[in-house]
Amino acid sequence: MTTTATPETETMMTAISADYEVVIGLEVHSQLLTASKMFCRCPANYAHAAPNSHCCPICMGFPGVLPVINHQAVEYTIMTALALNCEIPEFSKFDRKNYFYPDLPKGYQISQYDIPLSRNGYLTFTLNGQEKRVGITRVHLEEDTGRLIHLSEGGDPRTLVDLNRAGVPLMEIVSEPDMRSPEEARLYMEKLRSILVYLGVSSGKMEEAALRCDANISVRQRGETKFGVKTEIKNMNSFRAVERALTYEARRQIEELQAGRRIVQATRGWVEERGITVLQRVKEDADDYRYFPEPDLPPLVVSRAWVAEIRERMPELPDAKRTRFVAQYGLSAYDADQLTADRAWADFFEQTLKIGQPYADDAAMQARAKAVANWELGDLRARLNTDAIDITANKITPESLAELITLIERGTISGKQAKEVLEKAYASGERPDAIVAREGISQLSDAGELEGIVEEVIAANPKAVEDYRAGKAASLQFLMGQVMKRSKGRARPDIVTPLLEKRLQQA
Amino acid sequence: MSIDRETVDHVALLARLALTEKERERLREQMSSLLEHINLIAEADTSQVPATAHVLPLSNVMAEDKVVPSMPTADLLANAPAREETYFRVQAVLDEE
C-alpha cells in the first residue's frame, strides 16, 4: 500500500530544497516470475532450495553448452515496456558483459547493450495532486548473478557461492534523470512496483531483493542547467530506504560543495542501521566491460503482430483501474487510489462487491461499493497493517466481508457490533453469519423497548435535554450515545434518532 | 598503430592474467599487429552493409518456459577445487553489494 513521508524526511526535504536542486535517476532490476531460468530450464524460484540444487551446465557456464532464450521472459519484458509507453524496436540482441567475480560463473553476464528490447518510454505518478512524468530510457533483459556468503569465523576468511540465483531472468528498467527529490524517487518506485505486480511479471518484493533499486544522484545550484557530479547509491531495500538514503546523500553532497570540496564520482552503499551512505569504490573511468554480441544467441526479430498480441493480453493497469473505480462504483478519487495501488487490494474489493449481486439499481451498488471500500480501507487495513499480514493471506475473505455488510444493511447488527464480529472473524476465520447466530448478536429494534430507554435517558440527563432545547444540536449526539450505552450497543440508531428527536420536542 | 605496455597491463588485469616480462613484450607486439590488421579492414566501405549481430541467418530461437530437472548437486560440485557443505568455496572477496 501507499506509504507517506515520515516527519523525519519532511524536515530533511525542507533543508535540501533551499539553494540546491537534487537530480535523481533510477536503475531498477526486477526478477521475472518465469518458471525456468533465462537461458536454461532450471527452476527460477530458488526460495528454500538447498545451495546449488537449481543449477546445470548451462547456468554454471561449463564449456560447450548452448543457452536458449526463455520465450516467456521476452514477452514479460515487452509487456512491461508497453506498460511503460516504450518503443519496441523490430530488432534486438543480447551481448556479453565481461567481468570476473565469483557470483558470475561464466566470467560474463549475458545482457543487452546497444540494442535493448525497448526504449524511450515514460511513467507518471501523482505528486501533491499534480501529475509528474519520468522518462524511461530503456527496458532490457539480462540474467541474475549467484549469491555470495562471506564468512570469517575461526580466523578463516572465505566466500561461499550458491549459484541457484545465477541465470534467473532479470529485467532492468532505467529512468532518465527526471526526478527532483527523494520523495519523487520513492513515488516512482511505488508506481513502478505497482505496475510490475499488476502485470504479473514480478513479485515486487524488495525485501527479498526480487526488486532492487540503484540510484544516480547529483545536486546543483538552482538555475544551473548542467548536471553536477553524480554518485551511485546501492543497497536500498525498501521504499523507505530509497527516500532516506537519497535524502542523506543529497545533504551530504550539498555539505561537500558548501565546504568548498568537490563531489567524487563513486559508488556508495546505503547502511540502513546507521542511516548513512559509505564509499564502496571510486569510478575513475567507465567500466571496461568489453561488451560484444553474444555469439551463442541469434538475435530477436520482434514483429508488430507479436507486439500487438502481447498488448492484447495485458491486464488493466493501476491508472485505468483507478479511473474505472471512480466512474463505475462512484468511489472518491482517494478511495480509488488507495484500492488500486495494490492489485490484490483492488481484486479483493471487486470480489467482495460481486458477491452482493444482483443490485436493485446503480445507487444500491454504489452504496455497497462505498461500504466495502470503508471496511477494507478502514478496520481491515488497520488490522492487516498492525499484524503485517498480506490481504491475500488473511482470514477475512471477500465472502466474509460481503456477509458482514449484508448483516448491517439488513439491520441485523449495528456498525459497532459489526466491528466486533469482524475482529472475531479475523481471528478465527469463522463466517459472520455463524458468529452472529452463535453469540446471539442482534440489534434492538422494538419501538416500545426503545421508547423506554429513551425515557430513562431523558430523565437522567436534564442538562443535556435543556441544552438541546436551547439550540445546542450536539447534545443530541450525546443523548444518542447514552441510549446506545444503556442498550449495550444494541439499539438501532435509525429507529432511536427519530424517537429521541420527537420526545425532545415535547415539553 | 602501436600498443603500449600500459594497455597490455590493463587488458591483462581485466583478463586476470599474470604475465611475465617476456610475455608482456610479445603480446604488445602481437596486439599491435592485430590492431593494424583491423585498421586495414576498417578501410573497407561498409556504408551500404547492415551491422551484423550474428554470423548465422537465424533469429528468435527461444524455448518454452518449462522446468526440467537440474543437475544433481553432487555431480555439479564434483570438479570444484574447494567446497563447504554444498557451496562452492572461494578465496574471501570483499563484499561490494
How would you describe what is shown here?
The complex is a heterodimer of chains A (507) and B (97). Chain A is an alpha+beta fold and 507 residues long. Chain A has two domains: 7-304, no CATH class; 447-506, Arc Repressor Mutant, subunit A. Chain A is 42% helix and 20% strand. Chain A contains 16 helices and 16 strands. In chain A, the strands form four sheets. Chain A has an eight-stranded mixed sheet with strand order 6-7-10-1-11-12-13-14. Chain A has a three-stranded antiparallel sheet with strand order 5-4-15, with no helix packed on it. Chain B has 97 residues and is mostly helical. Chain B has a domain at 5-42: Histone, subunit A (Orthogonal Bundle). Helices cover 38% and strands 9% of the residues of chain B. Chain B is built from three helices and three strands, in the order ααβαββ. In chain B, strands 2-3 form a two-stranded antiparallel sheet. In chain B, helix 1 crosses helix 2. Chain B starts with a helix and ends in a 6-residue tail after the last strand. The relative contact order of chain B is 0.08. The mean pLDDT of chain B is 91. Strand 2 (69-70) of chain A pairs parallel with strand 1 (62-63) of chain B, so a sheet runs across the interface.
CATH architecture of the domain at 5-42 in chain B: Orthogonal Bundle
Computed over alpha carbons, the radius of gyration of chain B is 22 Å
Number of DSSP strand runs of chain B: 3
Spatial order of strands in the largest sheet of chain A: 6-7-10-1-11-12-13-14
Low-confidence stretches of chain B: none
Look at the structure and give the mean pLDDT of chain B: 91
How widely separated are the two ends of chain A? 54 Å
**Shape descriptor of chain B:** flat
Instruction: Report the helical percentage of chain A.
Output: 40-55%
Write the H/E string of chain B, N to C: HHEHEE
Number of strands of chain A: 16
Overall tally of domains of chain A: 2
**Structural class by SSE content of chain A:** alpha+beta
N-C termini distance of chain B = 40 Å
Most extensive interface, residues per chain? Answer: A-B, 56 and 36 residues
Strand content of chain A: 15-25%
The helix tally of chain B amounts to 3
Number of helical segments of chain A?
A: 16
